Amino acid sequence: MKKIILLSLFFVFAFAGIVFAQTKVSGIVLDKSNQPVPFANVVFKGSNTGIVSNEDGRFYLESPNTYTALLITSAGFSDKEIPLEKAVNYNFKIVLSEAEALNEVVIFTGKTSKKNNPALDILRKIWERKRKNGLYLFNQYQMQKYEKVEFDMNTIDSAFMKNKLFKGMEFIFNHVDTSDVTGKTYLPIFINESVYDVYGDNKLKKTKENLTGNKMSGFNGNQQILSFVKDLYSDYNIYDNHLKFFDKSFTSPLSRTGIDVYNYVLKDSAFIDKKWCYNIVFYPRRKNELTFKGDFWVNDTTFAIKKINMGVTKSANINWVKDIYIEQEFEVENDSVFLLTRDYMMSDFALNKKEKSKGVYGKRTTLYRNHKFNIQKPEKFYKEEVNFVDNAVYDRPPEFWEENRFEKLNKDEQGIYKMLDTLQTVKKFKQLYNLVSILGSGYIEFKNFDFGPIFSTFGYNEVEGLRLRVGGRTYFGPNDPWRIQAYTAYGFEDNKFKYGVSGKWMVDKKKRVIISGGNRRDIEQIGASLTTTNDVLGRSFASSALFTTGSNGKLTNINLSNVSVEMEPMKNFIVQAGLSYRTLESASNTFSLDYYTTLPTPENPAGVVESKVTQSEANIQFELMPNRKTIGYGVERDLVDSPFSHFFINFSYGLKGVLNSDFAYEKIQLYYKQPIIIGPLGRTNIILETGKTFGTIPLGLMSVVPGNQTYWTIENTFSNLNFYEFVTDQYTTLQWNHDFGGRLFGRIPFMRKLNWREFVGVRAVHGTISDENRAINASGLPYNAPENIYWEYNAGIGNIFKVFRIDFSWRGNYLNMPDATRFAVKGSFGFYF
């Protein structure tokens, strides 16, 4: 009976598809030897509606209009016309014949020529005029923007519907529809709508977007999903040389370097909106590169793009994404102004790129209207708000959306809100949602409280042995103005409990004035980073890795308390001032933090030795992160994973005598990280750290060059150094690492299908120690400083099984030091696009 119902349901949807979309065609384009013809141009005869077949020759084309014939063209083949006898025509097998007649115009075959190619002449005209078209023609501009983001499960079939996973949730399949891009069935699971007022000043090179309305269904308020959405759909301009998607740089078909990357063929010319336009088809010259296939229409006088359709090639070295499809449409404002009015992007996320694999569509539609020009605003108008808070924006009435939607929701989109609201009342769905949420955030959600993070539950070191940790945080919603976090841990070797507790309270939302404080008593590897903060709950992975290389017993008992106040006077510029109190003493019988309070003399050769450090400290720090993007406005925000510069500087003052504090000193620390995307060559990161302590201090307060004795890669550490191998009170480090993104391996035929990615890097550090600090050292640890610049270099392979990376590192010098590690292998897991 269930089979009959499901089959009936499919027939209903098939019939509904015929009603709403008048012509549908899918198939494969082959040559006479039955081999696929990639990048063939497939259009409805008598229209500008078409698509380019993929690398396997497959295509899907749909139109709300009725057409009776399909026209297929490809360089080197005779044009072929296929009659369409009915509205829905699936699985056509179209065989093309090679062009033979002398009177046929066959200009290019395979790779197109870079000389005497009319398509390239037009492309050069586009380059010349790209800054003289559209919004760039005006000093200032204003417009309204409507954005709709939707996620859908795709390739829904009867077997999928019958899965026990959906028992009790069968009603969701009433909303199954068919994609007009791929022809696959899909089920909407999320929709978000936003309306903005957009302003720009080309002279000041400033833009501003004011959010006026936002409406979301499914996973409402989930910060991780909102952050994910923002990561996926960064803004782009097709005229740019490179387009960034999923943290990768794709070569634009309109790029000045496109001639070396794409083949271009001038296919057609026609009137579009009373403007004569040329149609140019483009497809990649090589496999495995981050490129597109598709076509565009360009005006014959302004050389502005009228319409462009493009999809990422199937062989592109990108994970979890089977397809990316982009459509942009431009309207004529007057004889010389073409303005972007519609931007559509669809991504097909799947575990693999097989044709029948199931996945999730991510679709973004952006519409623009009501353009106004040369209305000048003062420069301060474009200053970004530090913390945008307007709850009314997220609670607009239905009348607002009826008025401000640029296009009406279709029948299925209208049903998403109601379906998802109902779905969230289903117990089984809640369980599935909670499981995904746990994996994403690391916390198990309860009412007003999150338990975790669960990934920190187990640890091991020589002092504690096996370590168990449990903790949690208050959580009333993603925009909480205050939050309390706490944990406790127990070591089965030392039989001791440890704990930490901290709290934050945002007392001013507009400038993000936050008061915080806490206390921690725990065991820590204090030499695990150079640039340090007084984060009470921070803990290095080096302190609790389950497996390590060599001894990891150089651990410290730490009792840390701090209070601080921070504010964000301008967007992404943070100032913080704080007070801290800490005690430090060795946690191991094989490691000492001893120092002389009285130096040895002939009369007293043993001197006076102290083992415990008691220290009060005041600090002020400044943090600048241009172009950083965040989600939410609560006391804790999520970051959008887009590259941004990071500049941090900290001044610390040792307050001798305050709460029996032992030392007076001044310390300055500086950290600077600069990511650089170098087009198709990949992404570089440069990290500079430098610092100096003025005054006499013991080992517990020195700047230890961070080693890494785990089997895993830890950022800002030296893979070939052991803990405490180098100690400094003045240091400078420079790191360079580069991700080629698979560009090199992609040129090696037998390695292309692996989709591995190449990494290289170099790290170096210079440091010194003052005579005064050497003199008070009673720890027994020999003070070695990298006065001759220690350096190491590494090469790695990433994207192994899509989730694993392995790094090989070599020590460059200081090869004769005791227990020197000349070669190391480290691994890491991650989610790679």
Automatic annotation (TrEMBL):
An example Pfam family from this entry, by short name, is: DUF5686
Provide the alphabetized UniProt keywords: Signal
Q: Which SUPFAM superfamilies match?
A: Carboxypeptidase regulatory domain-like
Q: For this UniProt entry, which residues form the secretion signal?
A: 1-21
Q: Name the chain's protein.
A: DUF5686 family protein
So where does this one cross the membrane? none
Query: What InterPro entries is this protein classified in?
Result: CarboxyPept-like_regulatory, DUF5686
